[in-house]
Amino acid sequence: MNIFSPITTLQGIGPTRAKQLEKLEIRTIYDLIAYFPRTYEDRTKMVDIRDLETDTPACFEAMVVRAPHTAHIRKGLSITKLTVADMTAKLDLVYFNQPYAADQLRYGESYVFYGALSGDYARFQMQNPVFELPDRPGTRTRRIMPIYALTAGITNALLVKCIHQALDACLGEMPELLPERIRQKYDLCSAREAYANIHEPKDHEALDRARKRLIFEEFFLFAAGLRLMRSRRTQVQTVPYRDLSLQAFYDALPFTLTGAQQRSICQIAEDLAKGTPMNRLLQGDVGSGKTMVAAAAAYLAAKNGRQAALMAPTEILAEQHHRSLSALFERFGIRSALLTGSTPAAEKRQIKEALSSGALPFVVGTHALLTEDVTFRELDLVIADEQHRFGVAQRAALSEKGRSPHLLVMSATPIPRTLALMVYGDLDISILDELPPGRQVIDTFLVGESMRARINAFIRKHAAAGNQIYVVCPAVEESEFDSIRSAEVWAQSLQQAVFPDLRVGLLHGKLKAAEKERVMGAFSRHELDILVATTVIEVGVDVPNATLMVIENADRFGLSQLHQLRGRVGRGKDKSYCVLFSSNKNQQTLERLKALCKTNDGFKIAEEDLALRGPGDFFGSRQHGLPQFKAADLSLDMALLNEAKTAAEQVLADPNYVLDPTFPAMQTRIAAMFSKDGNTFN
Q1: Euclidean distance between the first and final Cα of the chain, in Å?
Q2: Domains of the chain, CATH where assigned
């Protein structure tokens, strides 16, 4: 038996149990040891019976003073009752469908119990407490108890038993992934100590040391993997672009690009001239002009005889891009086309033939670009808009249609630069931190329910002026457990009771793709006055006629998400507004929402969001391309992420790092970490 043996080599795990554990992605002994607890129960503190509190689990030692008695109430239900006592009080214990308790709990013997009181003061009792003898090592009491995420057929007690067996059998074989000098510098325990104490901590200090080591290790491997991916890309050769002149492109524009746009275009041009594949993130606030930067890159590709493809997450966004870019490229004699699921069959055939022959230098499309029958003669530039809507595997699928093409991914989610540099370490970053001249400042107001009538009148005023309104709700359907506004119910209420004379539409993520496109298309064509939606409209929707954004239960959203929603208005010539409804009285929550009212600068808002909520909000959707961390949490462990990134760079900067005895195990884990999520490591 070794650490990578199948779990069926452990006692008590047969084919049926193995199949159940496979639902938790546990297949080998290593998988079992690396299946970390989701939380812990502190069962170390012992109390007297009289000090037990209702609904608060605790440990206590007591003697059985009334022998257990089991009654069979009906088929499938038995109840075992007994009484225990210590020097301070007596307590009735009740076990449901656990007749073995009557055999194991003997009159006159003492046991250590763990459970919570229930009932009222006159008739306290405890139901189904766990127990064990006080003269034996605690396995379920008097310890810090790991609590695991479970699946059907797998109990916490079973996992504890299996993991204990695995640790006993194979902990000695646990490979060390961190060089000794790194462990010493950052005061990290060994891998063996960490894995032992994450599952069976001796005390809180041991648990903290184990967590620190395992979190550091994951971040170290993550940072090292990003750096290795970056270095390996530089070994791939491409044909450098020779013609980098952009003057004709600039002259054709009816406006002057911002300094940030010109700087980003220069960075892209330098990448295209290097002879190695570009891998760049173009990050800019809503309305900062990312599309024109992408257009310049596609223009350079066409001038150098190459093909470029821009992939958008929705048909509406793809149509918007094609509408604006095709008119621009016509001035240079550069053919372009739109390829989506809705493109007529005959037109699809023509586009595919033109791409395959090389006659079509630029195509805008959706996932339709990924189908097998779409081939390119010389695909050399892949542009992914709203990059977080695509998984890494989807971007890779388009890239594989070329020979190591350049990659430009665009995001409208501002992320603090320090955070972006750490987590997007596999990408070079260009930031658009200026807005084009004339871009509107959107006035934002935080209001309570007392303002509902006035805001409804404000909505009617905008509709009467021929403008359109978004109303965003945090939930799709109504819930009996939550009072938050649901899109379905609110859309019906607005249409029937509040604005019966206006045209109200409904859009949410549970609709089929074709229905989403139909509703959004109707709003774009001004066939609807009000669109009630969830955050499905957060990105990629451009309706210049929309001038008012109303967000219900605004406290349920992160600041950056609210900023993205606000960016759906103010895209035309008319003055635009954003109204945040919230009844939340929490002072910190109100300060957070007021911060949005004070500025339209997405990067300032991102910094505020980072300070108040941590970085988790920024990367929820980026998880498509991030490894799934087992111990680490991007929203909690920023300091360790910084340290681990520094340590990884120090190790990989040493040309002799491959000679370190930890290197083979480190390399194996990095490859496994990245390959699971569609990243290319090797």
Answers
A1: 29
A2: 45-142 (2.40.50.140), 247-432 (3.40.50.300), 443-605 (3.40.50.300)
